[in-house]
Amino acid sequence: MTSTPPPPPTQNRVFARPGLKERRLLADALRTETAGGLILLGAAVVALILANTPLSELYEKVSHFHFGLPALNLDLSVAHWASDGLLTIFFFVAGIELKRELVVGELRRPAAAALPVVAALGGMIVPALFYVAVNAPSNGDLNGWAVPMATDIAFALGVLAVIGTNLPSGIRAFLLTLAIVDDLGAIMVIAVFYTSTLNLWALAGAIAGLAVFWALHHKLNVRGWYVYVPLAVVIWALMYNSGVHATIAGVAMGMLLRVKERTGESASPAEHIEHRVRPISAGFAVPVFALFAAGVSVSGSALGEAASEPEALGVVAGLFAGKIIGIFGGTWLAARFTKAELSDDLSWPDVAGVSMLAGIGFTVSLLVTELAFDDAETVEHVKAAVLIASFLSAIVAAILLKTRDRHYRRIWEEETRDEDHDGIPDIDQREEAELAAQAAAREEAARRGGTASDDGDGPDSPRH
Question: For the whole model, what pTM was predicted?
Fold first, then answer.
């Protein structure tokens, strides 16, 4: 008797449906990010209105108003408090996501991680090459090569919420994984390439603070927020004074959190903290940053000046064309030369739609713009280019994905159907039953094979 073959592995499939627990975590995260994305869209619109109306003078005064602690080198403008301070919360959540994916998520398995990592790398490298290709012949500022590398997951989900696309969980998980790898790339780029001066004493203090954070969390099992919040502020201040961008402190603390449950825990500390902090990040920190970062002039003359600058043109080319070519091409190459393949329910136009959606680079792109350029006029023009490229990417992605919406709705309904109302989708129950039946069949086949061997010339039978 031959055993029933196991089901085909899904970890090498593009847009494969995640497991039930992962889908629930994904749904919770995306629900918050979608709401935050809508707030982010609103904040960007408000910023553009303030910067292009008679209120622009008041907007500028508020943005450049300084406050803080000069003795600690923390006398910053409101805009800088938003980018260096509040955005640390966003990177803290990104650090938690990255740690979870590396330890218990899809990125822990090389076979599963290879495809989204290759796609994300393509989505970072190709846009940077587009920027360099536009700027090198024109003597543009090459320091902005990293501006078109980033994907803004919150903004992308906000766009999806507006157009009402019923993307299946596999596509959303793939998009989120892309964004996580993207964030890791942005973190490394900011830490390595946009650190001009380095204060080793302050950096050593920040590292010592992180060591205390780790010991309190992992060894002493301290859980009080009133301990960690003051410690986090100290680590952030030391990181800021070290010359390394202060948001790196948020990433480091997020990655120090424990992501695996211990006996008696219903959720890990990382999951519990992320559930509390993500709404603050998505609903407050990132929108406030956008409010002070997205306020650029969009008059005809300003756009004309931006269109004549290679830096702005390179960013538009990188985000709008580089992202779709890089991600689609990386996915195709991975599928062509590895065992990876598309999920049975989806096709290459779906990859194109998601690749185009990844061209929405907002939060990190605006942050890198502020770090990359010293000239205020260039900063304004490149920010306008980020907004234009993100808008164009959103429009094209919406068209591509909307044409497949009926197909997506069918997949989504199949994923969420629960006719017996037991809280477990029917598709998961069917798959669980099939796996159990296949396991039983393999055990029965192994038992029968062993019995037949014992009755004949098995090792316990004497040979004649």
Answer: 0.78
